[in-house]
Amino acid sequence: MASVGQEVDPVTRPPGPSAPRAWPEAERLSRLPSFRVLVRRRGRLAWGLCGLLVAAFFGFLLFVSLAPAAAALPLGATGLTLGIAAGIGVIALAIAVTGLYVRRANRSIDPLRRRVREAGQWSGLARPGAGE
User: Fold this and answer.
1) Could you list the mean pLDDT of each consecutive 10-residue stretch along the chain, which spans 132 residues?
2) H-assigned helices in the chain
3) I need a surface site. Which of 15, 35, 80, 94 has the fewest CB within 10 A?
4) pLDDT of residue 122
């Protein structure tokens, strides 16, 4: 039994009335080199793109709040201001980042995911009846 303040590993923790059921296959799956590569690549891609969007959004907020006169500058005779154009740019960037994520996921992450699943099934790690 763990003492107060001591961390308990949910995978190896003995099942109890309040504890979720342990799934030791998850620990074995996490040891597969292809699984580690998958987690690293997916995390790096997701966090990198997330950081890009957060930086763009906060940059837009700082621009509009710290330079309202510049944000109010009209662009041509259309009535469109620099602030509105920057906001549209942030939205367009979010759409482009989503497309980039889907493209990279389809090309590099999904094949890795399939390899991990096949390795798990080959080594008896896959749960029967578990979907994709």
Assistant:
1) 54 53 69 85 93 97 96 90 96 97 91 82 55 48
2) 24-30, 33-66, 68-71, 82-104, 110-122
3) 15
4) 58
C-alpha to C-alpha distances, 33 to 27, 36, 87, 113, 125, nearest whole angstrom: 12, 5, 42, 12, 14
- In whole angstroms, what is the distance from residue 42 CA to residue 22 CA? 25
Residue with tokens 């309202």: 68
CB 55 within 8 A of CB 43: no
Six token digits for residue 100: 């980039």
Both tokens assigned to 16: 């109890």
Contact 29, 125 (CB under 8 A): yes
Identity at 78, one-letter amino acid code: T
Q: What is the chain's length?
A: 132
